[in-house]
Amino acid sequence: MVQIWNNKEILGNLTSKFLTFLLTGIPGLEFVHAWISIPFCCLYATALSGNSMILLVIITQQNLHEPMYYFLSMLSAADLGLTLSTMSTTLGILWFDACEISLDTCIIQMFFLHGLTFIESGVLVAMAFDRYVAICDPLRYATKLTNYRIIQMGLLMIMRTVTLILPLLLLLKPLNFCGVNVLSHSYCYHPDVIKLACSDTRANSMCGLIDLILTTGVDIPCIVLSYILIIRSVLSIAAPEERHKAFSTCVSHIGAVAIFYIPMMSLSLVHRYGQSAPKAVHSMMANVYLLLPPVLNPIIYSVKTKQICKAILRFLLKK
After folding, report:
1. How far apart, in whole angstroms, are the C-alpha atoms of residue 276 and residue 285?
2. How far apart are CA 168 and CA 209, in angstroms?
3. Residue 195 has what DSSP assignment?
4. Alpha-carbon torsion 22, 27, 29, 33, what sign?
5. Burial (CB count <10 Å: 0-12, 13-18, 19+), residue 41
6. CB under 8 Å to 256, separation ≥6 — which residues?
7. Could you count the other beta carbons within 10 Å of the beta carbon of residue 154?
8. Among 244, 245, 259, residue whose Cα is nearest residue 298
9. Which family does it belong to (predicted)?
10. CA dihedral defined by 165, 180, 85, 251, rounded to 10 degrees?
């Protein structure tokens, strides 16, 4: 029995060493993948051009060198990274049926995918703090949100991300994977990968839960608390016009928070409780979760923020 167990362990180690996963496009619609790629290309083009434009105008326009726009540039950079991290595998499947991905490549993709998701969540908290200070303590806005403090906040987001993501991904290396390793999405997603392991994944699940608590579990209450304080401050303003003006500065950020967290939570619920749901639903939810924020954030901020809209028009007309 010991010999059989040792043979199984050696086979498992060899399997993991030369492991490949099979990514999934849109299950049941493989025959129209070429047509499905057209809207995907449009969405990727919108996300890349929109976020690049936001970054470009903030860097080149001197009047946008303010805390609010620095945070917006961080959000656009994170959205650009998220778009690029999955574009190659998604379009590879839709165009060339290139479904295979190695474990190491999968881990690299997850590093950028989950890491940039953690960073974007942190940026949304920083933007909520920015709105809180601007509305509730405007006289000290310039002294509280200095360039040095913004750099500190950015470095803190990166440090938190690296500290949380490295153990999560390093714990994947010792796992053994058996059988046909077919993933549910067109990219590597950590909960999806560990479900395929045929060894003990309790440490992986625990590490994933801790990461979730220390990111989403901390960030959402911070954002909610900021808006409770903002609403209390705004309601104390007597003039309706001033109230409307104060609330209107938060609309873009509220939209960004909604389109980031709602798809994320929906995908988590589908993974945990939606086993009976059609596979196509899982796949579409996964793509919506990653494509919606990068596509809509530039549109929301361009339409709702006059300074960004004017800067983009000025930039385009100058060209």
Report:
1. 14
2. 10
3. T
4. negative
5. middle
6. 75, 124, 127, 293, 297, 300, 301
7. 17
8. 259
9. Belongs to the G-protein coupled receptor 1 family.
10. -80
Amino acid at 216: T
> Which long-range contacts link 37-43 to residues 24+ away (Cβ below 8 Å)?
37/91, 37/94, 37/95, 40/90, 40/91, 40/94, 40/287, 40/291, 41/91, 43/291, 43/295
Whole-prediction pTM: 0.91
Helices 251-273 and 216-235: angle between axes, nearest 10 degrees: 150
69 residue type, one letter: Y
Yes or no: say if 180 and 22 are a contact pair by the CB < 8 Å rule.
yes
- Residue 18: predicted pLDDT: 57
Q: Residue 160 is encoded by which pair of tokens?
A: 């938190």
| pLDDT for res 319 | 60
Contact 246, 136 (CB under 8 A): no
32: which DSSP letter? G
Taking the C-alpha atoms of residue 297 and residue 300, their distance in angstroms, rounded to an integer, is 5
The Cβ-side half-sphere exposure at 263, using a 13 Å CA radius, reads 21
Cβ burial, residue 183 (10 Å; 0-12/13-18/19+) = buried
d(Cα 295, Cα 115) in Å, to the nearest integer?
A: 19
Is-contact 99 31, C-beta < 8 A?
Answer: no
